[in-house]
TrEMBL record:
Organism whose genome encodes this protein: Micromonospora marina
Domain HRDC: 612-692
Lineage: Bacteria, Bacillati, Actinomycetota, Actinomycetes, Micromonosporales
Family in the record: Belongs to the helicase family. UvrD subfamily.
SUPFAM superfamilies: HRDC-like (SSF47819), P-loop containing nucleoside triphosphate hydrolases (SSF52540)
Broad EC category: isomerase
Identification of the protein by name: DNA 3'-5' helicase
EC annotation from Swiss-Prot or TrEMBL: 5.6.2.4
């Protein structure tokens, strides 16, 4: 069992009983380490499998853990999500806790009850508003906040609430009363019931703690205060706890999740064993290098536990950074490359297009459909299946009967959308309401593009027919295809080829990220996206949303890459084809293959931590020659060549002009002045042969 583990994994597996914190970077084999730790302890007689409770955040992760433990020969371990574990316990103990009654009915969704609660306090909440109110209530209950405490707690947490905080608190209170009156509970109530059963009933606590004596918690950076309270109730003051997490993948703070329990674990558990897994087995060194470069700039609490990953795979393709004139051109180029990858043998299921918000999906759904590439949408409805889009299309068809023929199409679409509650001003507060607004804004953008197409059938009727055509294309059922997903829903997944799109300021980071903490979470989203790629990675942004639109800047999180590379053409066929900007060139370490981003590292052609193969004798000759030339020209030595350039020359030992100019900082002018001389020195010439002493005396 231990033979196939790397040293860090082995340290995690064999760590003694007690508090253990495994800081596991993306792709470092954390599931293998955790399951091996459970198996090692069980097979050596340290623990019994039936006394272990392993908690994950998804049913898929729990099933994977159970499967691996079965292969390792360990039976009886309970691997469940927090909710599944709590549900099992509450159901079992309900007759004892509720005077013989069974567990109350569990709500699938809060939306219906929240809508009724809003009406009771005088608010008319549509589906999007009800979803946002539900999200606020979930955040409050997960954060152990009661209705009467909500206003102060929301202010302290800088929550952007869908209504005035006092109104949200009123809805929260009405929701709780409605639930009690109807005899139902929600998922947070279920977790609270499990806590209450243990904390207030000694017999329940004794039975639970006799059953579960050893605990493992995966994705510990995503635990919220309510889940932590349940974990502490299970533990009952004991310390046989192993937690696994990566602070750099903290991306769910808006739900109440906090990395503070992971960050503070060594302080809260004196004598805890801390193990760092940093060998990345998922991605190529090029992808790993880019991920390290992005997260190395992180600030804040989570950055204290930042891990620098070390790629273990063979070198692969360089990450590609592409710049397009507008989003349709970007989407068409992505679709064309997806088609080429599939034609080249990459399974469609091993390709993903990742974006910041679900509202961005429409352009990629359309482009992939027109390119004949099947796709599946992860964690969201297809664009034309969204309720607000279906409702808008009905309103647009109705408007064709009364629209003024002289009204410009975009204006006619805006006017029709007002009938479904959309207004062309700033998006409303609340995530769901903002997604709804963004989807309808996408229809207006489509109208602007359609109106600019000289070959399109003019007017609102023609536009409705175009929308129907697109909807029909995107409703074609697919069994397997390219994955379209938001960065949040991509967490925990991986693909051979990943496209990260829309990497412009205002989108990533979103304009709604106001505080430093919110901006840093956006950076971590990009980091998560990068680390989803195994072999091939594309990053792109468009300088404008639509043709001729307002210019945008690239995301501040993108590395400052050399943009001297040759240009290419990209985009769809026909009139939609547009020019792509010159492609930035990515430089890799010539020793380990990692992507190089710092100027000095790019000049040397290697990571600062990789071993130097410098020719010391050549370096000294180059330095003496530089001193003579600088003296003759009466300029500082660095004007001729910097120390870093001399080091790069002595390490890389160029034999031809092409190899000379490949070193960053040596351009055509320097080649013209010094190229032949430097090549002669590299070939073995002495300084006196290329630059006699008398030269420096003139």
């Amino acid at each position: 069992m231990l033979a196939g583990l790397d040293p860090e994994q082995r340290a995690a597996v064999t760590a003694p009983a007690g508090p253990v914190c495994i800081l596991a970077g993306a792709g470092t084999g954390k599931t293998r380490a955790v399951t091996s730790r459970i198996a090692y302890r069980a097979l050596t007689g340290d623990i019994a499998g039936r006394h272990v409770l392993a908690v994950t955040f998804t049913a898929r992760a729990a099933a994977e853990m159970r499967s691996r433990l079965g292969v390792l020969g360990v039976q009886g371990v309970q691997a469940r999500t927090f909710h599944a574990a709590a549900l099992r316990q509450v159901r079992y103990f309900a007759p004892r806790l509720l005077a013989g009654r069974g567990m109350p009915e569990l709500l699938d969704s809060k939306v219906r009850v929240v809508t009724l609660a809003a009406a009771k306090v005088g608010l008319r909440a549509d589906r999007a508003a009800a979803r946002d109110l539900s999200a606020e209530i979930e955040w409050a209950k997960s954060s152990l906040v009661e209705p009467g405490e909500y206003v102060v707690a929301a202010a302290k947490a800088l929550r952007e609430t869908p209504y005035e905080p006092a109104r949200v608190a009123d809805v929260f209170d009405a929701y709780e009363r409605l639930k009690r009156g109807n005899g139902v509970i929600d998922f947070e109530d279920m977790l609270r019931a499990a806590v209450w059963g243990i904390e207030e009933h000694p017999d329940v606590a004794e039975q639970v703690r006799n059953q579960y004596r050893h605990f493992v918690v995966d994705e510990y950076q995503d635990v919220n205060p309510l889940q932590q309270r349940l974990l502490e109730a299970w533990l009952g003051g004991r310390d046989d706890l192993t937690v696994v997490g990566d602070a750099s993948q903290t991306i769910y703070s808006f739900t109440g999740a906090t990395s503070s329990y992971l960050v503070d674990f060594p302080r809260l558990h004196r004598g805890a064993t801390v193990v760092r897994l940093v060998r990345d087995y998922r991605s190529t060194p090029q992808v790993v290098g880019l991920a390290n470069a992005v997260i190395s700039q992180a600030r804040g609490t989570e950055a204290r536990l930042r891990l620098e990953l070390h790629g273990q795979r063979r070198p692969g393709a360089e990450p590609e950074l592409r710049i397009f004139t507008d989003e349709p051109a970007e989407a068409n180029a992505v679709a064309a490359r997806c088609r080429a990858l599939v034609a080249g043998g990459t399974p469609a299921r091993e390709i993903a297009v990742l974006f910041r918000t679900n509202a961005q999906s429409e352009a990629y759904e359309k482009a992939l459909s027109e390119a004949g590439v099947p796709y599946v949408l992860q964690g969201a409805e297809r664009f034309f299946e969204r309720p607000e889009v279906r409702q808008a299309m009905i309103a647009l068809r109705a408007a064709t009967r009364s629209a003024d023929a002289g009204t410009p199409l975009p204006a006619a679409v805006v006017e029709a959308l007002t009938a479904v509650g959309w207004a062309p001003d700033a998006p409303p507060p609340g995530g769901a309401a903002r997604e709804r607004w963004g989807a309808l804004a996408a229809l207006v953008q489509l109208a602007e593009e359609y109106a600019a197409d000289a070959e399109a059938e003019p007017g609102l009727t023609g536009f409705c027919e175009e929308l129907a055509r697109r909807a029909a294309q995107q409703h074609v059922p697919t069994v397997e295809g390219v994955t379209l997903a938001s960065l949040h829903s991509a967490k925990g997944l991986e693909w051979d080829a990943v496209f990260l799109v829309g990497l412009a300021e205002g989108t990533l980071p979103t304009t709604y990220a106001k505080t430093m903490e919110q901006v840093e979470e956006e950076r971590r989203l990009l980091y998560v996206g990068i680390t989803r790629a195994r072999e091939w990675l594309w990053l792109s942004y468009a300088t404008a949303r639509s043709p001729g639109g307002r210019a945008r800047r690239p995301s501040r999180f993108l590395p400052q890459l050399d943009r001297s590379g040759g240009g290419e053409r990209a985009g769809g066929a026909g009139p939609a084809r547009r020019a792509e900007r010159r492609r930035p060139q990515v430089v890799s370490c010539r020793i380990c293959g990692a992507t190089l981003l710092a100027g000095a590292d790019r000049k040397l052609g290697r990571c600062p931590t990789c071993p130097s193969d410098i020719d010391d004798e050549l370096y000294e000759r180059l330095r003496e020659w530089r001193q003579r030339v600088a003296g003759a020209q009466k300029v500082p030595a660095y004007v001729v060549f910097t120390d870093a350039t001399l080091t790069a020359l002595a390490e890389r030992k160029p034999g031809r002009t092409e190899e000379l100019v490949a070193i960053a900082g040596i351009g055509p002018r320097k080649v013209g002045l010094y190229g032949d001389t430097v090549l002669a020195l590299v070939a073995g010439a002495t300084v006196d042969e290329v630059c006699p002493q008398k030269t420096s005396e003139k």
